[in-house]
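Format notes (please read before filing issues)

Several people have asked whether sequences and structure tokens are stored in separate files. They are not. Every record keeps both together, in the order shown below: the sequence lines, then the token lines. Line labels are part of the format and must not be stripped during preprocessing.
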Amino acid sequence: MSDKAKKGGADHDWLENNLTYEDYASLDDGLRYELVNGRLELMSPGPSVTHQMLSFEMQKVIARSCESEYLILYAPLDVILASNEVRQPDLILVHRQRMDIVKKHGIEGAPDLVVEILSPSTIKRDKMDKLKTYAIYQIPEYWIVEPRTGILEAYVLQGKQYEIANIFQEEEPVTSPHIPCLSFTMAEIMSKIPNLED
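Then the structure lines:
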């Protein structure tokens, strides 16, 4: 690995190709990255308070009905999809019968569900790049949540690509073809999140 990769590349405009999980894991410059097809991508600044509250409320409602069946994890946590592909979804569900993919350093393989909560700087990455990547690595279900509107888009893997299975909002119960234990509405979550001033 180059010296720039070891330092994290102070200018962040460099492109270092063909990096592996070992290269990625050896970085300690205090910044957060994802490893995308062997290239480091600097993640945006820390998420907003609204983003974090939404993530926390989703964890709580999912745990309420699914904790006995699923391990519910949250970022920052590495999902190692390949030696050159490491992502950090906001929420991750792994069925307890598949605990063999859960390691001390992260998840090795495809979780049962990944959730990304949008922020202005991640919309393109979450709705285009990660949609393709998560499908390539056969993650059965991918949710994208819009924090301002409280809309949840549920994508389900059909063959090698995702199809939108449903759009949940307000009082409509959130359901999943793969995770029957789910029992919540987006209204329930959004009611717990105060409107904050910029």
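For reference, the curators noted about this record: The two ends are 41 Å apart (CA to CA). The chain is about 25% helix and 30% strand.
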